[in-house]
Amino acid sequence: MRFRSTRDESERKTVAAQYAQVVDSLIASRKWKEMPAFEDMLPDEWLPKAFFKFWSIPVSHNPDGR
Amino acid sequence: MNALPSCRIITVHTFRGDRSKAFGQNFFRALDDQRNQRGSGPSLTDCLLFAGHTGLSTDTDKVIYGFNPNQGTDPIWQVMQRLRSGGAYPGVVHDDTAVFAAAQQRGLTVLMFDVALSPSSFQIIRRSLAAELWQSIYSYGFPDGDGDCNCTTWIERLGLPLLTGRMDEFTAVTSIAGQVRRRFGLCV
Fold first, then answer.
1. Which residue of B has its CA nearest to A16?
2. Count of A–B CB contacts within 8 Å?
3. What is the ipTM of this complex?
4. Domain boundaries, given as residue ranges, for chain B
5. Cα(B155)–Cα(B136) distance, integer angstroms
6. A47: number of Cβ within 10 Å
């Protein structure tokens, strides 16, 4: 995963924005039946709010989302 | 023509994690409870049941050995955060037989295949495994992170050959074409 191969914050922001778009399209597809593998997940603070909402998992550590 | 040597067998065991909504919700709630000091967090077995796992056994006993992060005093929620961020932990090899049994009990499909080795190659792998059980020389990390390997690629590090050399088999590994760059450990 590109996110883990860099420590550059701006590059990570770019990857996270693309990840959020993929999350949105998966949600819109109504065919997202399985959570992604751990290694395909961003760290909590980089995951979009929509991810937590869709999977109904707690977001208390990330109140603003990204 | 010489007779074939009597082969020794190493069996690779692997299962895909249970990533259903129901299991995932319980698992992430347990992580969040631990993070907020409301609970003790998920068990290590639950962690592997969600993530999936790979291990190996030899024809000398029935124990399935697996490579795991040595989390030290870090709680599981922190371990998962650090690994997803690209960080690494020292690796440790456990007897994970019970984890594979739990996966089977849960209805997850545990895939197994044998790798037949000459007696001398088998002994080399056994020695590596024994050394790893004593103290692993590898660090644990997620793909493209700072670790040397995870449970799956640790098998490769042990020197166990997984590909036969058949081109159809190799080209069927679709990620070969899907990922143009592979990063190993701290090498970018």
1. B85
2. 68
3. 0.90
4. 8-178
5. 12
6. 22
Domain total in chain A = 1
Residues B12 and B58: their CA atoms lie apart, in Å, by 9
Separation of alpha carbons B112 and B11, rounded Å? 7
> pTM of the predicted model, to two decimals?
0.90
DSSP for B89-110?
A: EEEEEEE-HHHHHHHHHTT--E
- Across the interface, whether the CB atoms of B32 and A43 are under 8 A apart is answered no
pLDDT one-digit tens code per residue, B15-63: 999 999 999 999 999 999 999 999 999 999 999 999 999 999 999 988 9
CA distance A47 to B177: 27
The residue with tokens 């077995």 is B45
Mutation site, A26, A33, A57, A61, interface B, largest B CB count within 10 A: A57
Name the residue facing A37 among B17, B21, B144 (closest C-beta). Answer: B17
- Domain with A38 in it: 2-55
Asked if residue A20 belongs to a domain, the reply is yes
